[in-house]
Specification:
By secondary structure, this protein is of the alpha+beta class. The protein has a single domain (2-84), classed as TATA-Binding Protein. The chain is built from two helices and eight strands. The strands form two sheets. It has a six-stranded antiparallel β-sheet, with helices on one face. A two-stranded antiparallel ribbon has the order 1-4. Strand 6 and strand 7 (56-59) form a beta hairpin. The chain is globular. The N and C termini lie close together (8 Å). The mean pLDDT is 92.
Length: 88
């Protein structure tokens, strides 16, 4: 499983990572995993919003939007989410 390189979104307010091929994540299980780790999660039914710094939105197809303009911070958050979901 691989992701495209983190890239700035077109609005330049966040970074995005897109899996290749797309995933089909069980958001319910992902939410449980994050909550077990003590991460605050907002369940928007079609996506999860990890209310951390930086905020990370995780979609069912595996796409992540990381709300920061700092590439190092985006990479750190991206790696943490991958580890939490055992996708590394």
């Amino acid at each position: 499983m691989s992701y495209s390189q983190l890239q700035l979104c077109s609005n330049k307010g966040a970074f995005e990572a897109i899996p290749n091929p797309k995933l089909h994540l069980d958001l319910g299980r992902a939410k449980e995993r994050f909550e077990t780790m003590g991460w605050p999660v907002l369940d928007a039914r079609v996506m999860l919003i990890l209310q951390r710094t930086p905020e990370v939105t995780l979609l069912r197809d595996g796409k992540m939007v990381i709300k920061t303009r700092a590439p190092e911070e985006a990479e750190r958050a991206f790696q943490e989410v991958l580890r939490a979901l055992a996708l590394l």
